Amino acid sequence: MKVRVQVAGRELALSNLDKVLYPETGFTKAEVIDYYSRIAPVLLPHVRGRPLTVKRYPNGVTGPHFFEKNAPRHTPPWIRRATLPVPGSTKNRQTIDFAVIDDLPTLIYYANLAALELHVPMWQVSPEGTALPPDILVFDLDPGAPATIVECCQVALLLRDALAKDDLECRPKTSGNKGMQLHVPWPYPDRETSGYARELAQRLDAGHELVTSVMTRRERPGKVFIDWSQNNPAKTTVAAYSLRANAAPTVSTPLSWEEVEGCDNPAQLVFTAPDVLARVEEFGDLFL
Predict the structure, then answer these.
(1) pLDDT value at 219 more than 80
(2) pLDDT given for residue 187 in this prediction
């Protein structure tokens, strides 16, 4: 059964609203759509203008899923697209017709497709649809067991201090899984981000036993891997306020630095969709 609704002047047909997408908690597709509707004012600024990759779970988080970069053929014409080259595509494509979430109707359209996870690059497209230089640098902090997000927070503080010496600020958020990310507004359009991120990660690796900048799995137990390679223009990172496909509807959640400094238990930094809505109501967007 489809329900037709008006969203900011666009008509959408929402389907299977009672389907449970998170079986362990009973969180339904209607609740996913409701979450994205209510979180939109703070989510949209962080995805607007960025080519979209989604992770879709049509039968819920315990069923088959797939990444989707190409806008589906049935995508409404009013959804913005950007056709971009994709050298080295695993599907031998020369270009991909990306969607861009610029507004609430587009966000709800994708929520209705059970696109639980939203991933975007660290660069935007121009109004004409051409790729612009990166405007964000990202560090993805991945803990190797027995390390947890507690150790990620310690490394985040090291990165914050190192970046400050270069007159750069950073914003912390959880990944919504086991780690976290730091976003660094990048004010140098003529400088590539990957080399700087690699050099900084390697410097911290050399100076701190807790840190590794090496991707090899055997180097990671008990350490936090600073993944600087996310700054490759072909890669994406989960968007701030995106749901994650875990047993519960966890969210990639912006944090205050006080929360990072005070974290001594991984449970402190696990937030679900209702938690995040309450946080935004109380604190606003901590990722600004």
Answers:
(1) no
(2) 96
The bridge status of strand 10-15 relative to strand 66-68 is unpaired
Q: Do 136-231 and 2-131 have the same topology in CATH? A: no
CATH architecture of the domain with residue range 2-131: Alpha-Beta Complex (3.90)
DSSP string, the chain: -EEEEEETTEEEEEE-TT-EEETTTTEEHHHHHHHHHHHHHHHHHHHTTSB-EEEE-TT-TTS--EEE-BPPTT--TTS-EEEEE-TT-TT--SEEEEEB--SHHHHHHHHHTTEEEEEE-SS-B-TTSPBPPP-EEEEEEEEPTT--HHHHHHHHHHHHHHHHHTT---EEEE-SSS-EEEEEE---TTS-HHHHHHHHHHHHHHH-TTEE----GGG-TTSEEEEGGGGSTT--EEPTT-B--SSS-BB--B--HHHHHT--SGGGG--BHHHHHHHHHHH--TT-
Q: For 88-115, how does the pLDDT look when each residue is reduced to its tens digit (9 = 90+)?
A: 555 557 899 999 999 999 999 999 999 9
Domain 136-231 has CATH 3.30.70.3300: yes
pTM of the entire predicted model: 0.96
**Are residues 278 and 56 in contact, defined by beta-carbon separation less than 8 angstroms?**
no
Name the residue ranges covered by the structural domains of the chain.
2-131, 136-231
Residue with tokens 């990639």: 252
Q: For residue range 120-143, what is the model confidence (pLDDT) as tens digits?
A: 999 999 999 999 999 999 999 999
